[in-house]
Structures are given as structure tokens and as C-alpha cells.
Specification:
Radius of gyration: 16 Å
Helix content: 10-25%
Structural class: alpha+beta
Largest sheet: 5 strands, antiparallel
Order of helices and strands: EHHEEEEEEEHH
């Protein structure tokens, strides 16, 4: 069975090169307690593993999280947490009707000179995915990803070129 045009997945994606090895970028990214410090005005307000006390490094497939994103709180399920990728499936209110499901993905890929290509994306599936393909939604979402990516890079690389790694 093929998908109708309205049901085709929507993807929002942004990437940035970070002057640190992928394992360092992943290690620092998974320290979710630092997000309010390095990205205080970003759309990702908090990422919290459940149950409380678990760290981002300890999350595995099937674990739950409580994430504050752009003014909404979601309780996604972790799908992947390995050296190259961290991914969750967000339970949108419409998931029970298969109307909209979001997959938030962070990738830590080797780049030139020992750096990292940090990829930040979200894929949406379901009958309402077409809404996420609207140009205004895509532009706003990608801009939010780019700001977060820049905040993460600045934190990892250190301000004024003073690397902390």
C-alpha cells in the first residue's frame, strides 16, 4: 500500500561541524543537566530520563523521557542510544489514531580533522505529516535546530576559541 501525498513523511534537518571527536560530542550532549546552561534560550528546555536519577548515557531502547520542547512537555520513548545516534519517538496527542508521530534524531558522525558532523533532525509520519511540511513550519523548526546546534558547538568548543576538550 502506498502513502498518499498527505501521508508522506516530513523531515526537518540541520547539521553543524564541531571541532571535537564524535565520542566527546556525544558524551557532552548526553549530559542533559547542562542544557539550561549552554542553551538557556533554546527551544530544548530540558531532556530528562525516566525514572529520575537515570542519566542520558544510561538510556536504552524502550526507556521513557520527559522532555520540555518549545513550551510543550512530551514523554517520548528512546529508540536508539549508541555511539553514532540518539533517537526517540515522540508521543504526539494523535498517536493513537496514527495521525502524527515524530522521531527526533541526533547523530554524531566523524568529520574531517577529527571533528564531528552533528546532525539534528525530526521526521514526522502519519496523516497530519503534511502540516509539518508547510514552509513556515519547516523554516521555524530548522532555525530552532540551528540555534541549538550552535549553542552546543559553542559550549563544547569553548567561548573565544578556548577549547574545553
Amino acid at each position: 500500500m502506498s502513502l498518499s501525498k498527505a501521508e508522506e513523511p516530513a523531515t526537518h534537518s540541520s547539521s553543524i561541524i564541531i571541532a571535537a571527536p564524535p565520542n566527546v560530542v556525544r558524551e557532552m550532549f548526553l549530559d542533559f543537566t547542562q542544557i539550561p546552561k549552554y542553551s538557556p534560550n533554546g527551544f530544548i528546555k530540558s531532556l530528562q530520563p525516566l525514572p529520575a536519577g537515570k542519566t542520558g548515557h544510561e538510556l536504552k531502547e524502550g526507556d521513557l523521557m520527559k522532555n520540555s520542547l518549545g513550551g510543550i512537555t512530551v514523554h517520548p520513548t528512546v529508540l536508539v542510544n549508541n555511539d553514532q545516534e540518539f533517537r526517540w519517538r515522540g508521543p504526539w496527542p494523535y498517536k493513537y489514531f496514527n495521525l502524527l508521530t515524530g522521531y527526533h534524531i541526533f547523530k554524531f558522525l566523524p568529520a574531517e580533522n577529527g571533528g564531528t558532523m552533528f546532525v539534528h533532525e525530526e521526521n514526522f509520519e502519519g496523516v497530519l505529516a503534511w502540516l509539518m511540511r508547510l514552509d513556515s513550519v519547516t523554516k521555524k523548526t530548522v532555525a530552532k535546530f540551528e540555534y541549538f546546534n550552535l549553542d552546543l558547538r559553542t559550549w563544547i568548543e569553548g567561548k573565544d576559541g578556548k577549547k574545553i576538550v
